[in-house]
Design brief:
This protein is mainly alpha-helical. The protein has 3 domains: 103 residues, no CATH class; 56 residues; 48 residues. The protein is 70% helix and 5% strand. It contains 9 helices and 2 strands, in the order αααααααβααβ. Strands 1-2 form a two-stranded antiparallel sheet. The longest helix has 24 residues.
């Protein structure tokens, strides 16, 4: 990569990876390893990019971020930040695309290890990833990057199939409404005939106190 490209790309990496660190859990050994890896990369970014050696350390950073328990939603925020960048030189554009692709690959692993509880949760993830993959596939096609295009197509197809199979047996989220303010224990019994699911209702509807639930809310259909 030319020096001018490397300088612009290094600044772009600095912004995106610094934001990743803001969102990532940084406690314990996983957090420490992530901070060290990001710090080392930022310090040496220009030389790594100029020598076309940025791939392996970036791959390690995203693996460390996932192992530090960054969530899908947090990675989506980082991806949105990367997408919003407006690099001018070719090298910086290529690094922007690479960062987004690393994020999509990492999100796919997180999704594969997520236990979903409703079809709506799956649908939200599916819509978000479909839009992101479609954008990157279009870029790869415009750049005539056949290898990158095929990888994106294959990963997107595998993820879409996995989400469809995951959603099939899951219950849907339904809305409920009662005339009175009821404790979550009573709600759980009325909705599920199982008072033991009170905590589920509490969490799903963000109820402040279990004795005073909202009259309207959402619950699983089964």
């Amino acid at each position: 990569m030319f020096r001018a490209d490397a300088i612009e790309a290094a600044a772009l990496c600095d912004r995106v990876l610094s934001y990743l660190l803001e969102l990532a859990p940084t406690s314990g050994r996983p957090g420490s390893d992530l901070r060290t890896a990001v710090g080392d990369f930022i310090a040496n970014a220009e030389s790594l990019l100029a020598d076309d050696e940025a791939g392996p350390p970036l791959d390690e950073i995203f693996d460390l971020a996932r192992n530090a328990n960054m969530t899908f939603a947090q990675f989506e925020e980082v991806r949105t930040t990367a997408v919003a960048e407006t690099p001018k030189l070719l090298g910086a554009v290529l690094i922007q695309n690479a960062l987004i692709e690393f994020i999509l690959a990492t999100e796919s692993v997180i999704i594969a290890n997520t236990t979903f509880v409703s079809r709506e949760d799956v649908d939200v993830v599916k819509a978000s990833t479909s839009e992101a993959f479609a954008a990157m596939q279009e870029i790869a096609a415009d750049d005539m990057d056949q290898a990158g295009y095929m990888v994106l197509i294959q990963l997107h197809a595998a993820l879409a199939y996995y989400l469809a199979q995951t959603a099939r047996p899951l219950p849907r989220m339904l809305s409920y409404a009662f005339t009175d303010t009821l404790p979550t224990l009573v709600l759980a019994y009325r909705l599920y005939a199982d008072a033991g699911r009170a905590d589920e209702i509490l969490a799903e509807n963000k109820i402040v106190h279990p004795a005073f639930s909202l009259r309207e809310g959402r619950a699983l259909s089964g």
